[in-house]
Design goal:
Elements: H1 2-9, E1 15-21, E2 30-36, H2 54-67, E3 70-76, H3 78-84, H4 86-99, E4 107-111, E5 122-125, H5 133-156, H6 162-165, H7 171-180
Parallel strand pairs: 1-4, 4-5
Antiparallel strand pairs: 1-2, 2-3
Helix pairs in contact: 2-5, 3-4
């Protein structure tokens, strides 16, 4: 909580950690979360989502929703990613997540090296998800939320195996795109997808 405590020492009362997941996949949205952590809440199990097993991540997610002061989520879909690029989409998802906080934050800790377009005071922290409890909590919320969304997409497009790889460019996923073409939730400007986008123009199997 060093970054959070430093911000509070300067008079900011509601410090939110902000993180996103889903820059690397070939399909699905980029999802961001913002979390204002309660000072007195225990930090056990709150760490970078990539360091947690799915079971521990889900348990941490449930604790965060129980203990956090506020949580906001932002989702930017593949069509927007294709239109404005993945970096701008990630920053947009972060901004939307912050705007969905209630109560609102007055200071932001952003994972990575880019600040959002919001006018709120903020700092970017490289590897912030392993250095700030609030950012780690946001990474967990974003990861679990996105995984749930990809499970729903799997039910709609089972031929791609989204429940297993969550849209990331695994060998099985790339092979499915080659066989069936790109689905409506694929990122059609991404290498490995754009070459096959014309294969299923009606949204059905190629």
């Amino acid at each position: 909580m060093r970054f959070e405590e430093d911000a509070r020492s300067r008079g900011y009362g509601r410090v939110a950690g902000v993180d996103e997941v889903g820059r690397g996949p070939l399909a699905g949205p980029v999802v961001a979360a913002a979390v204002i952590w309660a000072d007195a809440a225990p930090l056990d199990g709150i760490r970078d989502s990539k360091q947690l097993t799915p079971r521990r991540r889900l348990a941490a997610y449930q604790r965060i929703y129980r203990d956090a002061v506020a949580i906001g989520v932002g989702v930017v879909d593949a069509a927007v990613i294709d239109r404005i690029n993945i970096l701008q989409s990630a920053l947009l998802a972060m901004a939307v997540a912050v705007e969905h906080l209630e109560p609102q934050a007055d200071f932001l800790l952003i994972d990575g090296n880019h600040r959002t377009s919001l006018s709120l005071p903020q700092i970017a922290i490289v590897k912030g998800d392993s250095r700030s409890a609030s950012i780690a909590a946001a990474s967990i919320v974003a990861k679990v939320t996105r995984d749930c969304l990809m499970a729903r997409y799997h039910a709609r497009y089972p031929e791609y195996g989204f429940a297993q790889h969550k849209g990331y460019p695994t060998r099985a996923h790339r092979d499915a795109v080659k066989q069936f073409g790109a689905s409506p939730i694929h990122r059609h400007t991404f290498k490995g997808v754009k070459e096959f986008s014309a294969k299923r123009p009606d949204g059905g199997p190629g």
